[in-house]
Amino acid sequence: MLIISNLNASIDGKSILKGISLEVKAGEVHAIMGPNGSGKSTLAAVLAGREFAQVTEGTVTYMGRNLLEMPAEDRAREGIFLGFQYPIEIPGVSMVNFMKTAVNEHRKYKGLEPLSASDFLKLMRDKKELVEIDSKLANRSVNEGFSGGEKKKNEIFQMAMLEPRLAILDETDSGLDIDALRIVANGVNKLKKPDNSTIVITHYQRLLDYIVPDVVHVLYDGRIVRTAGKELALELEAKGYDWIRKEVNNS
Amino acid sequence: MEKDQDKLLNDVTSGEYKYGFYTDIETDSIARGLTEDTVKLISAKKSEPDWLLDFRLKSFRQWQTMKMPAWANLKIPHIDYQDIIYYAAPRQRPALASLDELDPELKKTFDKLGIPLEEQKHLAGVAVDAVMDSVSVKTTFRETLAESGIIFCSFSEAVKEYPELVRRYLGTVVPYTDNFFATLNSAVFSDGSFCYIPKGVRCPMELSTYFRINAANTGQFERTLLVADEEAYVSYLEGCTAPMRDENQLHAAVVEIIAENNAEVKYSTVQNWYPGDKDGKGGIFNFVTKRGMCRGENSKISWTQVETGSAITWKYPSCILKGDNSTGEFYSVAVTNHHQQADTGTKMIHIGKNTKSTIVSKGISAGLGQNSYRGLVKVLRNASGARNFSQCDSLLLGSRCGAHTFPYIEVDNQTAIVEHEATTSKIGEDQIFYCNQRGISTEDAIALIVNGYAREVINKLPMEFAVEAQKLLQISLEGSVG
Ligand SMILES: Nc1ncnc2c1ncn2[C@@H]1O[C@H](COP(=O)(O)OP(=O)(O)O)[C@@H](O)[C@H]1O
Ligand SMILES: [Mg+2]
């Protein structure tokens, strides 16, 4: 589904991603872990098409196409969803209006008619239940005045509405209490279909108790320094990131 | 990064004017320039009574002693008032018996503008007076309105048919000495609309005037007078467009509104004069004086404006709250893109007791546009219990445009409560990316955000125009992406 090969990217001339290669197959769940500042969010941003990071080398193939050539909105319409580490507030734009536009843009791209108002509202209702989000949130402006936990749930709610093929969840667990974490993780699991893939970016192992990864990568200083099965997450939890740091610096 | 964002915003905000066609119709115009003879000629062409000619001449003499105001936050190029044609009328047979006699070219123009001139379109429920260059062309729906005693006609007709009404109210809200542009208008106004709603009548439909400047080098100086007698109600809408021309054209209108006891007037404007091209060439100079007088108790006047056009806008629709318990409202969205400049706002003058005013101003700047809000809230000594709430928001698209706020507050009564809130925000690259990531294009993202931002004002427009205004906002800010 997604093949990243020797990806290098820089921000304002500063090299941030330094030769990342990885492959996510249909149906797989990958976890990307690593200390703060190692480039996890930058990788997610590059995949989603945010232009502030410049790709200097390497390729990304998504569903057989050159992902890096596609504008951000087409990547989204082709099924790439990014759950933001810091969801953005858009004052004055209601969640209902925002999601209606998003859903209908996805439909238009697929050659489908826009949803009728009643079908759309029904869809909203169903998906809200799935992620147990307060129904009042839907009438408020996008993320405006939402608590940290509400923002994260709202990301998963949007994911539920858009049914992506490849979801990239950037630290969706951070700032959540254990109940919220369980709700978010359950939501993600319920949305999982056999052919869909997920990249879970996280700092902590605890989310991976709920969303069980097939592969775990450790990203450190712009490089993937370790790739293994889910036991790697437990090892990291037990030993922290310091041993990785030491190993990398020694070699 | 700042640069990328600017480029992005620049790409999507460089759309061009869509009403810039010119109609080739014969016009009857007088020579350029302005002297006492010009004023007399205009008056004679319209076979006006002496009292009106006197009003014009008084105004002209006053105007000669005046200077163009320089206090606005605008860069106004030199205007040669002797190089303007002060009267241009589409030439047509006099006294139209029916719409069929209307010049077909003229009719095509109005069709292009989507003005429901045709009888069958009356189903749309909007009565329209259309003013082309200087002359009012046709007022629809007149007979239906007349049944409930409502007068809605061109200003010239009103002078002929209801001279006593016109004379009673003309210049009572905007005196001929008021300001440079209003005084100029008082001397040379050519036509406009007149509306009178008698006691106790709720006008059953929206009344609407469309203004269009067509002929070259012509100034448009229309005069609108709107009177709501006791217990009357009317909602009135004004729309305007002009062809694209390289030279600037002057528009200096005066609108006067009078609301008697318990009367209510809603006046909505969708202003879409030609703004000039991307490089700032051409465009309308829009210097307008609009003022309403809440003369009666419990009366109410609301101004709602969506200003997307004109190269320069100088405009402060105001309310004089004279009657006790009267209410004034001002809801405004003003867009400046490319090289457009706007200095707009309102004045709320609280004279009566327990008078209330609300100001909601939403400025949107893009490109190199400069947008200023200028507002005065004045509470006079006897206006005990007066209340004002003002909200002035500015939205910036890009970093080369500007937003400025000049609120003036003068309070002479201790019981008055005056509140002012202001915010400035910027459409961020992160907001646009967030939308992109959900499958929404940059162009649609900007429309979504701008419409959300302006919604509070758009919602005040009559339903059928809210949609039009929303589209207009979109058009004036968007163009081709990528
Ligand atoms: N907008 C930005 N401008 C400049 N530097 C940035 C920006 N975003 C991230 N960086 C830098 O890129 C590096 C990686 O950051 P990030 O991808 O956010 O790491 P992580 O998500 O793993 O914590 C850090 O050194 C950070 O300071
Ligand atoms: Mg991060």
Model description:
The complex is a heterodimer of chains A (251) and B (482). Chain A is of the alpha/beta class. Helices cover 36% and strands 28% of the residues of chain A. Chain A has one domain (2-250): P-loop containing nucleotide triphosphate hydrolases (Rossmann fold, 3-Layer(aba) Sandwich), CATH 3.40.50. Chain A has eight helices and twelve strands. In chain A, the strands form three sheets. Chain A has a six-stranded mixed sheet with strand order 6-9-10-3-11-12, with helices on both faces. In chain A, strands 2-1-4-5 form a four-stranded antiparallel sheet. In chain A, a hairpin with a 2-residue loop joins strand 1 (2-11) and strand 2 (14-24). The longest helix of chain A has 15 residues, at 95-109. Chain A is globular, with a radius of gyration of 18 Å. Chain B has one domain (2-477). Chain B is 24% helix and 35% strand. Chain B has helices at 2-12, 36-45, 50-64, 104-112, 142-147, 155-161, 163-169, 180-188, 429-437, 442-458, 463-477; strands at residues 27-29, 88-90, 126-132, 135-139, 151-154, 193-197, 206-212, 223-228, 233-241, 248-251, 254-259, 264-271, 283-294, 300-307, 312-315, 318-321, 327-336, 341-350, 356-366, 370-379, 387-397, 402-411, 417-426. In chain B, a hairpin with a 2-residue loop joins strand 3 and strand 4 (135-139). Mean pLDDT of chain B is 82; it is low at 92-97 and 116-125. The structure holds adenosine-5'-diphosphate and magnesium ion. Adenosine-5'-diphosphate (ADP) binds at residues 11-12, 16, 34, 36-42, 52 of chain A.
Give a brief description.
The complex is a heterodimer of chains A (251) and B (482). Chain A is of the alpha/beta class.
Average pLDDT metric of chain B:
82
Question: Pairing-aware structural class of the strands and helices of chain B?
Answer: alpha/beta
Would you tell me which CATH topology of chain A applies? Rossmann fold
Report the strand count of chain B. 23
Main structural class of chain A: alpha/beta
